[in-house]
Structure formats: structure tokens, C-alpha cells
Automatic annotation (TrEMBL):
It comes from Vibrio palustris. This is Glutamate 5-kinase. Catalyzes the transfer of a phosphate group to glutamate to form L-glutamate 5-phosphate. ATP binds at residues 142-143, 184-190. Keywords: Amino-acid biosynthesis, ATP-binding, Cytoplasm, Kinase, Nucleotide-binding, Proline biosynthesis, Transferase.
Amino acid sequence: MVELARQCAELKKQGHAVVIVSSGAIAAGREHLAFPTLPNAMSSKQLLAAVGQSQLIEAWERLFAIYGIKIGQMLLTRADLEDRERFLNARDMIHALVDHDIVPIVNENDAVATNEIKVGDNDNLSALVGILCDADKLLLLTDQKGLFTADPRKDPSAELIKEVKTIDDTLRRIAGDSGTTLGTGGMATKLQAADIARRSGMEVIIAAGRAPNVIVDSLSDSPQGTRFLPVEESLENRKTWILAGPAPCGSVVIDAGAVDAVEHKGSSLLAKGVTKVEGDFARGGVVRIMDEHHLEIARGIVAYSSADLVKIAGEHSNKIFETLGYDHGSVVIHRDNMVVIQE
């Protein structure tokens, strides 16, 4: 932590703004309470987080004080990001801290978070925080040098992937097989986070946290680790919220023709292309758009409830009113309310 603070201070000296997403509250609480034996329950983790959060932030405060830098604590849950107004309030807060030369230290609010409102890992949380503060770069520090062609602990011929322009199924399979040993997020969650961040215009680097000068080097032309280039046409604010904010409340499975229209023709999703509806959701919910192999190809705000969609699935748009007795427009998910995930 001392070395991380030193490097962040160096970046600030160069004129850069720094935001830290830090885990460790539960571990700090466990240590502060001398490793107590507790029931295996959510309330035990919340207890440890409540005790450890102050210990964690105090440690960061001491370390940044060495360099004359003030810090501010920001605790989030997914509920803070799902609601559009709370999302904007969180964004205003983090911008206010940065504008006043304060380093935000962000963590999931484990003391109150339940499984339903947890982001769950700090990799994805950091991508959401990057969206909140309009970051240019996201650096994911881990116990691996980066993403390899295979698991380097099992395959001595595995090579470090220095640069990634497209995240495809091959890369996802590689990441799924190469977990890290520390924290709740493995390499697969880092790839998810990288995908969210780069679609929002951020360059992403996955690198080893203990490597000398890894943070300072991330701003050079030859950063350590694996570098993910941002998508050329990054998402506008509303679409970043669709991708980063609400957890999907269901899924809509579509046929091959609709997949082609959504992925390659910039089309909205029509009821005719829907083959199956999964989950129970209301109009205005965020849903996954899946192909017939259950691969998520997009995500969007649905114009019809799941009950209505079951009735109009496969129908032409001009039959919606006849089937339901009312309509909310001719499309199930409008292109303006949709984020395509597959490339």
C-alpha cells in the first residue's frame, strides 16, 4: 500500500487525477478483531466490514498524508448505480472530490450490501467507478503479469498478451481458465470489467500490482501487462448507464435474423424476432438479449413487460395492439436504449 500511494502521488505531481478502488475492509476487520470465529452468515461479513472499513481508510489516510494528499471515502452498492438519479448524484460527488484535489478511495459498502445489491467484485466496481468519473484509463492490479495465451502456472509455453483490440470468445475462454489467487475477482471478472470500461472510452491495463513502478508505467507508451484499447466509438452517457448500472432482470432470446439485424444493421429489436422470454420483469427494465445458443449479444431497456412479451413474441409489430389491446410502440427494445456487447 505504501508503494501504491507513492506512485499515485507521483501521478498527481505530473498533473493527473487519481481515483482508487480498494478492497480489504473485511480482511482488515478480521485482523483488527484478532481473527474471531463467526457464523458463516452475511451478517458476519457485514460485521467485519463495518469494523474494517475505518481501519482500511485510516491506513490509506496515513499513507497519503506522507505526500500531503487528502483522501475522501466513497462507499457504493449496485443500488446506487441502478437508479438513474442516484447514479448522477454519485457521479457529482466523485467529480467534486477530484475537482478539489482529493483522492477518492472507493469500496463496495459491504456493511449494508446484500447479495441482491452487491456488485460482487472490485474489478467490475472499478469499471463502474471509471464511468462515474469519466476516466481515461483503468488500471486493474492483480497477482499476475497480465492476460496470457494460457494459464502460465500450468503451461510453461504461455505468453503474455501485450495488446488487445477485440474481446472475443477465445479470449473469454482463456480468462475463464486463468484465475488469480487473491480477492474475489479472477481474470474472467477483469475481462468483464475491461469490456465495460473500454466501451465507455477507457484504455484498460491488467498488470501485476507488485511490479516496480507499474502505476507510473501505465501512462507510458509501453505499459506493463496487457493493454486493452478503447472502442473507437465509445458509448454516450445513457448507454453507459444501461451497461454499468442496473443488473439485468431477465432475458429475451431472439432468432438468427434478429441477431444479424441487431449486431450488424444497427436495428431495434422487434417482437417478430423474439423466440423466448426468461424472467419476470416490468416495462422499463434492463434485459439481456440472447441468441439461440444463450450467448448474450446485447443489453437494453425493454418497452414491454415479460407478460406482454410472451403474448407478442414472434408477432409482426402491427399485431401488437390487436394482441394486447394497447401498445407502447412498434419495437421491443429501441436502438437508442440498447448496447451491443458482441463485436
